[in-house]
Predict the 3D structure of the following.
Amino acid sequence: MFRTLDVVMIAVMTAAATVTYSIKHQAENKLEEVRKLDAEIKLEEDTIDLLKADWALLTQPNRLNRLVKIFESDLKLVPTESTQLARPSELPMPTAELPALPEDKIAKAKKPASGTDAIQTGSVAR
């Protein structure tokens, strides 16, 4: 009754159905992972928005002025004087950008200088 071709076709159809089912199952699992990641991303975005709103509330000038007045005696805060402000060009040069000293100047700088030598030459021991 059954021919060899019939048995082969049944085996191929069963294998195809099994492969199709496993691919569908894997796709559903991946879709569930994507949904979980989307939910986590949405939660993080909402948290960031909430933190930004909280920061805006906490840094309101009226609120800060009120807190300064309340805690003035504890903090001893005073307004910034205009003489306390500096331009970037007035700041000292970062040590990474300092020019390299020649070896003889480094040796002289490491020697302790007497009081008169230090004043006359302007060298500073480091």
In short: Helices lie at 4-58, 61-70, 72-75, 103-110, 115-121. The chain is about 65% helix and 0% strand.
